[in-house]
Amino acid sequence: MDAADILISKAGGLTSSEAMAKSLPMLIIDPIPGQRGRNTDLIVEYGAGWKAINLANLSYKLRRILETPSLLSQARLKTQQLARPEAARTILLDVYKFLQQENGILV
């Protein structure tokens, strides 16, 4: 991902979050309903990537993105805004505080 300008992939949770943390826009191919579909919707709605519904659409969108560099740079900025690189730490601290309050745990 460090060497890429765009990630063509499915929108799994780990893949999507790593792409956002690396400011890497995604071109997502035919997402399946459920979590991947919701991840795709969020990424597309936020402007951090695009959805291709089939291979012909993938080819069209990729060509358009590569021929219009401003599309890629705008999406890269959106990924930076969408990314939450400190999310794991924030969650851990929230759980720790909850355990302290609920159970009187002092560490």
List the helices and strands and how they pair.
Blueprint: E1 7-9, H1 13-21, E2 26-29, H2 35-46, E3 49-52, H3 55-67, H4 69-82, H5 87-103
Describe, in plain words, how this protein is organized in 3D:
Helices cover 61% and strands 10% of the residues. It has helices at residues 13-21, 35-46, 55-67, 69-82, 87-103, and strands spanning 7-9, 26-29, 49-52. Strand 2 (26-29), helix 2 (35-46) and strand 3 form a beta-alpha-beta unit. The model has no long low-confidence stretch (mean pLDDT 91).
What's this entry about, in short?
With 107 residues, the chain is mainly alpha-helical.
List keywords for this structure.
single chain, 107 residues, mainly alpha, 3-stranded parallel beta sheet, elongated
Broad structural category? mainly alpha
> Whole-Å distance between the termini?
38 Å
Number of strands: 3
Gyration radius, rounded: 17 Å
Describe the biggest sheet?
Answer: 3 strands, parallel
Physical arrangement of strands within the biggest beta sheet: 1-2-3
What oligomeric assembly is this protein in? Answer: single chain
Which consecutive residue ranges, at least 5 long each, have pLDDT under 50? none
- Overall pLDDT confidence: 91
Q: In which range does the helix fraction lie?
A: 55-70%
Estimate the strand proportion: 5-15%
Q: What is the number of helices?
A: 5
- The best one-word shape is elongated
Q: Could you give the order of the helices and strands?
A: EHEHEHHH
